[in-house]
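Example 3.2
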Amino acid sequence: MDEVIDWLTLHNHRRLHSTLGYTSPMKFEANQHAGQVKKAA
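Structure, written as tokens:
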């Protein structure tokens, strides 16, 4: 089970992805959400 948690942490928080502008999936999602909140305000 620890291997799965380690992989998820690497994949979602630390792994940079070229199609996401070389950000991690979690950072990309946070940036998207912040942009949507800013537009709504």
